[in-house]
Amino acid sequence: MGLFGKLFDKKECAICGGEIGLLGNRKLEDGNMCKHCAAKLSPWFADRRQSTVAQIEEQLAYREANKEKVAAFNLTRSLGKGTKVLLDEDSCVFMVTDSRDPIEDNPDVLAFSDVTGCEFDIDESEDEITYRNKEGKEVSYNPPRYRYLYDFYITINVRNPYFDEIRFKLNGASVEITPPAVGGSRRKPGLVRIDAERDPEYRQYTEMGEEIKAVLMGARQQVRDEAAAAAAPKTAVTCPNCGATTTPDASGCCEYCGGVVG
Fold this sequence. Notes:
By secondary structure, this protein is of the alpha+beta class.
């Protein structure tokens, strides 16, 4: 079979057994997968080409079980604007999604305790402002003038068998800031952040990013503290309600009368 024939040779999906159409193949380490099966993988998964068929099947089983977690998810708090961090504080879990229908899109549900770190960073780029001279050519101002573009990113580091970070952009279009030409048009590097922070939209996304970071890291620490307290040795005390010597239960109540112990 010639090269042309090989390019259009029909392939079978190693996952569902279906025929893979033209341009629909997703290569695995030891096989092929159709685009429909690939769409069921976690959106944060990036190692498909290095994964075996068996590993993909394991992940798809995990993703199927995740649907039950999404269905049971009780939203108590939403952070962000486009892509959002949704929290179920009663169950100590969260998910990150830009979908209006999480049931349909099946975003990964993660425990607060899965979070290993969270970073908020701002990417800045510059774009020179030019003008057309009398000959119709685009030329630079003298001194040069620039507009500055800002994008705001959250990176959540997690413990998960299929991905170790969730990185997403808080803003849609870049936040654009053009310094006034009065008194010189080129900013000094030391004034970059000071100038930007005067912009309301820049401040909005900065506060949003800092809030997401603080909430996730705070929730992670709370879970750790509660686990440490539960594992700590229990000390017998005198119940102020019934006078019995008791070891308080997990709720801090007397094992005899059920009253709250100090």
